Fold this protein.
Amino acid sequence: MKLYFAPRTRAVRPRWLLEELGVPYELVRLDLARQENSTPAYLAVHPLGELPALVDGDVTLLESLAICLHLADRFPEKHLAPPLGSVERGPYYQWMAFAELTLDPAVMALYRHVQLPEEQKDSAHSNAELARHRARLTPVLDVVRAGLGGREFLVGQSFTAADVVMASILHLANTLKLLDGHPQLVEYVRRHTQRPAVRKAASG
Ligand SMILES: N[C@@H](CCC(=O)N[C@@H](CS)C(=O)NCC(=O)O)C(=O)O
């Protein structure tokens, strides 16, 4: 398997999962600053020039969530996904989708605000947008906190690929100081980002 990767992108998620799985893979690092994702060679892999992409045999997969779902299923003996058809498979799908489709856009809206030039941030319009995005994020974070219910893992009694996806997004939220007032989520991020696989996945 070959993973197209750059640090501090969504490609960290499947790389983290590959490290957790402990399976061999080839890492192809692309330098976004040098626009290595816009070369004809990479556009032939991912027509939008985005990361990640995974080549698994004859199949090329796009979308970090799909890649994580695929990898966890590909190695069932590693137990990073509840078995197909098990009761826990439902919450597993739910948290994967919630992380990617509900939490991620709410965090990214605020991330984009942080990236704005200072003069644009100060406008009344921008401040109203910021307040709106923050108000949207709070109940979303409450859903995750309630779902964890003080447990260590999102699904069942063990670490799954859903924790990889959720903790990755919450980690970004934490670095943006968006988890203030959510100590359980800060603790969830701290615990899971201490895993040895994370350190390998986040390295350049
Ligand atoms: N929904 C896609 C989003 C991929 C995406 O936007 N990747 C960003 C990095 S996080 C990227 O490659 N940006 C480079 C660019 O667009 O030039 C996924 O989850 O894989």
